[in-house]
Design goal:
Helix content: over 70%
Shape: rod-shaped
Distance between the termini: 16 Å
Number of strands: 0
Order of helices and strands: HHH
Largest sheet: none
Structural class: mainly alpha
CATH superfamily: F1F0 ATP synthase subunit C
Strand content: under 5%
CATH class: Mainly Alpha
Low-confidence stretches: none
Length: 74
């Protein structure tokens, strides 16, 4: 029973890593909106960089979930 409890605690701690990307996504899109308000002519150029930033930040959350599942079911 102690091993099962340790797995549950470890998986729960691994999911803490999902909170960081939530903050990161808010920062990415907040900076994008602020930049567009300052200079609307760069909207098309900046949107590609926003999508790249979104993908990189979201990948961190997926890695944290994969680690949690590996701990839980591995």
């Amino acid at each position: 029973m102690e091993v099962e409890a340790a797995k549950l605690i470890g998986a729960g701690l691994a999911t803490i890593g999902v909170a960081g990307p939530g903050i990161g996504l808010g920062t990415v899109f907040g900076a994008y909106i602020a930049g567009i308000f300052r200079n609307p002519s760069v909207q098309q150029q900046a949107f590609g960089q926003v999508l790249l930033g979104f993908a990189l930040v979201e990948a961190i959350a997926l890695f944290a979930l994969v680690i949690a599942f590996l701990i839980l079911f591995g």
